[in-house]
Amino acid sequence: MKKPNRIQTILSVASCKLTRGILRRTGRGGTALPGIVAMKISKNILSVPAKDMEIVVVTGTNGKTTTCNMICHALVEGGHGCHRDRSGANLLHGIASDLLCDTDWLGNPKSHYAVLEVDEAALKQLTPLIHPKVIVVTNVFTDQADRFGKVENTLAEIRKGIELSPESVLVLNAEDTQTSSLALGVPNRVIRYGLEESVGTQGNIDLSDAGRCPKCGGEYEYDYHIYAHLGGFRCPKCGYQHETPDIAVTSIDRMGTNGSSVHLRVDGRTEEAFISLPAVYNVYNAAACIAAIKALGLPAEEAIQALSNVRSAFGRMETFELGGNVLQMILVKNPAGCNQAFTYVTSFKDDFNAVLCLNNRTGDGHDFSWIEQTDYEKLCTDPHLRKLYVCGDRAQDLYDRLLRAGADKDRTELVTDYTALVEELEKENCTTFLLPNYTAMMELRTALSPKTGNKDFWE
C-alpha cells in the first residue's frame, strides 16, 4: 500500500484532530468517526506514526483492556513515554482516531511506545499497517456468537492477523488450548505466560471452548485446571501438550479485594509480586503484562514493581463511592468471564448486593443465549447476597433466568431506568457489585458519574 505524502499526512491528521475536537465539545466520545475521516484521505496513514514507534497490541476474548492498562502503566512507571487508546474503541477506525490525535501535524508520534487494544476480527486489518513489535493474545472463549459463531472462528481471525505480521513477538497464554495453538506453523518468536500446577484447581471444569488437538483432532486430557478450559492440557493420541510458561505464577499466596500476593518464576528466578487488582483472571493479565515487557526487551522488574499500584480501567474492577457505600463494577459479557466474576464476588464473607444489567445491542452481540450457560446459581444461592437488581434492554429475560437459578423473588427487583436504579443504590448500606455487559456498562456509568465524580470513558 502506497505511503501518504506530506500533504496527505497533514490533511489526514488535521481532519482527525478537528473532527474529534468538535465531537468532544458536543459531549460525545468521538471514537470512530475521526479515524474514518482520516483514513478516507489516506488509507495508510497509520504507517506514518507507526514507523517511529514500538507497538504492543493486545487481543483475545477477555482481559484486553486490563492487560493494556497494566502494560502501559508499567512503561510509564519505568520512565517511558507510552500512548494508550483509553477510550476502548478497539476496531480499526477507533484505534486510528486515538493514535493520530496523539501526534503532531506531520503524524510524528508524541510517545515512543504504544499499547493498543484490538478486537479479534480487527487484528488482520491493523497489523499490516502498524507492524507491531509484540502481539499479546489473552485467551479465546465463546463470545458474541452471532458475530463469531464457534470459538474456532475467533481463533482463525486472530491467526490471520498474526500471519500478516511474522516479525512480531507473540505473547501467548500457555494454559489456553486455543491461544497456545497460535504458535504452530508461524515463524514468530513466542513467549508464553501462565499459572503452574501448584496454583491448582480454581473453578468448575468447562471444556466447551477447549476444542480438539490442532495436530490430530484428538480430545484433550488435563493434568490440572485453573478455570474453564485453562490448564495443563495434553493430547494422549499425538503428544501435543501444554508447554512450560516462560513467565509462570508459581503460587497465589493471598487474594483479597485490594489485590493478590503471588510468587513468579521469571528467567529462572523466583520473584515476589503484589498485583493491585483482585481475582485470578487479573493474575493472568499481570503475567501477560510481564511477558509483554520482556518481549519489548525491557527488564521484567519494571513490570513487577509497577503492578503493585496499577489502577483499574473503566468498568473493570472500577470503584465508585455513592451515598457512603462502595460500588465495584465488573464487566461481564460471556459465560467464562461471568463465572469468574461470580467466583470473585462470592469469595468474601460479607453481605453484598448485586446489580446485573443485560443488553443485546451490536456492541454486545445480539445473541444473549449465553446466559443459559452461565452459573448464576453460584451467585443466587450465596448466603451473603442481600438483594439483586436487574436492569437493561433484556432485563426481563435475565430476571427470569435468575429466578430459575434460585434467586429469592422477594429480594430480586426489576428496574427499567438507570437513574431510578442509581437512586435505589444510594439508599443501600453495603457493598454492591455492578455486573453489566458492555453497552449496559456505558449506560450505567453515565447514570453514576454525576453523583460519583468518575470521568467519562474516553478520559
Helix and strand layout, with pairings?
Layout: H1 6-25, H2 33-41, H3 47-50, E1 54-59, H4 64-77, E2 82-84, H5 92-100, E3 113-117, H6 123-130, E4 134-137, H7 145-148, H8 151-163, E5 169-173, H9 177-180, E6 190-195, E7 221-227, E8 230-234, E9 247-256, E10 259-266, E11 269-275, H10 280-295, H11 300-306, E12 316-322, E13 325-330, H12 335-345, E14 352-357, H13 376-380, E15 385-391, H14 395-404, E16 412-414, H15 418-426, E17 432-436, H16 438-452
Parallel strand pairs: 1-3, 1-4, 2-3, 4-5, 5-6, 6-9, 13-17, 14-15, 14-17, 15-16
Antiparallel strand pairs: 7-8, 9-10, 10-11, 12-13
Helix pairs in contact: 1-2, 2-5, 4-10, 4-11, 6-8, 10-11
Overview of the molecule:
This protein is of the alpha/beta class. The protein has 2 domains: 6-309, UDP-N-acetylmuramoyl-L-alanine:D-glutamate ligase, CATH 3.40.1190.10; 316-452, Protein-Tyrosine Phosphatase, Chain A, CATH 3.90.190. Helix content is 34%, strand content 22%. The chain has helices at residues 6-25, 33-41, 47-50, 64-77, 92-100, 123-130, 145-148, 151-163, 177-180, 280-295, 300-306, 335-345, 376-380, 395-404, 418-426, 438-452; strands at 54-59, 82-84, 113-117, 134-137, 169-173, 190-195, 221-227, 230-234, 247-256, 259-266, 269-275, 316-322, 325-330, 352-357, 385-391, 412-414, 432-436. The strands form 3 sheets. A 9-stranded mixed beta sheet has the order 2-3-1-4-5-6-9-10-11, sandwiched between helices. A hairpin with a 2-residue loop joins strand 12 and strand 13 (325-330). It is globular and about 65 Å long. The mean pLDDT is 91.
